[in-house]
Amino acid sequence: MGKYCKRIVLLFLLLFATNSYAVSPAILHGMSGGSGSSCDTSSTVFWWRAEAADFSGTNGTLDYSAGDDTGTLASSAAINTDASYFGSGNGLDIPTGSDSISFDTSSTTLDDEGRFEVWLYVTTWLDDTSIFNVRDDDNNFFELQLDYSDEIEFNWVDSSNTRLACVSSGANISTGGWVFVQVSWNASTDVREIYVDGTRYGSGGNCDTTINSFAGAVATHRFGNIRLAASDFYMDNIIVSTDSTIDPLTTCKDEEQWPE
User: What is the CATH number that goes with domain 31-241?
Assistant: First the structure.
């Protein structure tokens, strides 16, 4: 009987462990964050899993915006299941040139520093394709774009159209697979950073060149291609934060939902 009891107990423990993972997919995705540390959302002003183009109460556990922003899809941009990096749910599909979604906002908190994180899947790469930009009412803006065939470029562009480019030299981003991209900026320390899958690539040169604070309140966040370049790509789990200091910026990359 001793051996049979032990077998029954072991079988019960095995079934319990299997069931725990089956009913809690968040465990598989690391609700405590990609690096094992807790996901600090205290400075997060925008978190979009692309489940909806707005942030209504019914989507409050999936998408978050401090200002309850509402998104506007342009051209062929779409929210669909094909674009989700989780394998379920939705992502943002940018199949052709000029596809984008914009969120009008009235945030003053991104005046001096900020951080942007996104899961990115590029199917067709064309240089000068815009991925993300945030701008104020005076047309100063930060922009992330595809460039150099396999790199990303993070630009500060002021109202006089002077551009300072920080490049992820050596990242060698491949098409046909998901990568986690993060950029941060801090006007007080004149630093811009680029991370690809947790490794910093943007440093030195223009990455450490003087940049300006926004002259006014941030007016728009825009995701996708605002130009005529025709790269085909997906975006998912987009996070905008006012904290530029989290390093290597990976603690929230595998979160499935906005933690209430």
Answer: 2.60.120.200
Mean of the pLDDT values across residues 220-234? 84
Distance (Å, whole) CA 158 – CA 27: 43
DSSP string, 78-137: EEEGGG-TTSSS-EEEE-STT-EEEEEEEE-TTSSEEEEEEEEEEEE--TTEEEEEEEET
Q: Look at residue 105 and tell me whether its pLDDT is greater than 50.
A: yes
**Residue 214 DSSP SS3:** coil
Q: What is the pTM of this model?
A: 0.82
Kind of pairing between the strands at 191-196 and 100-107: unpaired
For the chain, give the mean pLDDT. Answer: 78
Q: Which of 33, 69, 31, 40 is nearest to 52 (CA)?
A: 69
DSSP string for 145-187? EEETTTEEEEEEE-TT--EEEEE-TT--PPSSSEEEEEEEEET
